[in-house]
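Z., the sequence and structure:
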Amino acid sequence: MKTIIPSDIPAMQLQQLMQTAIAPRPIALASTINAKGEINLSPFSFFNMFSTVPPIVIISPSRRVRDNTTKLTLENLKEVPELVIANVNFDMVQQVSLASTEYEDGVNEFIKSVLTMKSADIVKPPLIAESPVNFECKVLEIKSLGNFGGSGNLVIAEIVKIHINEKYLDEAGNLDQKQLDLVARLGSNYYSRNNENNLFEVPKPLVTKGIGYDQLPNEIKQSNVFTGNDLGMLANVEILPIGNFSSEKDVHLLAQSFLKNNEIEKAWEILRID
């Protein structure tokens, strides 16, 4: 296994490694404004939610690795500690990429990227009309992580109002994950797309308690067919089926075909010897 001490490699190489390995990352399209009323729009993939009550999100407008300069988003937030964070779906990904261009001070990226400003209700920066969900936020704290190129600046913000495009709601009034068609950042120029063509579900062992790998029969644990994912699915049942179990390769392959379709009960039926 290759090992690396972060301080032993150049910052640019470290950034590329981390952004490739720590992926996919959600994209925050951040709308900010300075004291002169000039609006800035910029995407950030150093972003996530960190609390529900209170509703806290964090973005990090890091210092540029190449020249250790700071971004307009950060400077704006120091002057006017409010922002709108919008999520990004496939329909607008090219416009968002264009908005990441480092234009001169005073240039409005909304205009450059053909995105539409819409007045927010509480904060000064505008909403992004094309985004499925907009979060109006007020900054609680800006925490600098250093003064080097690549050092982060954690913008800790509280959500004060949420705007949802109703076309992305299901019949129950909840956000439809498949319809959102969100995109995320990876390393280099890569993005990932999240829609009904590539989403899958994994049962959460919160309400139920899986028996765990250690409780699986030896015929299953010692299989040369089952992968770690397969064993994880088989071990996530609450009660081990009663009976004896096959160690035959063909039986395991058949059971595996059902596991690929999340048919765990059917897989156990195949494995059990009556």
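The radius of gyration is 24 Å. The chain has a mean pLDDT of 94.

Let me know what you think.
H.
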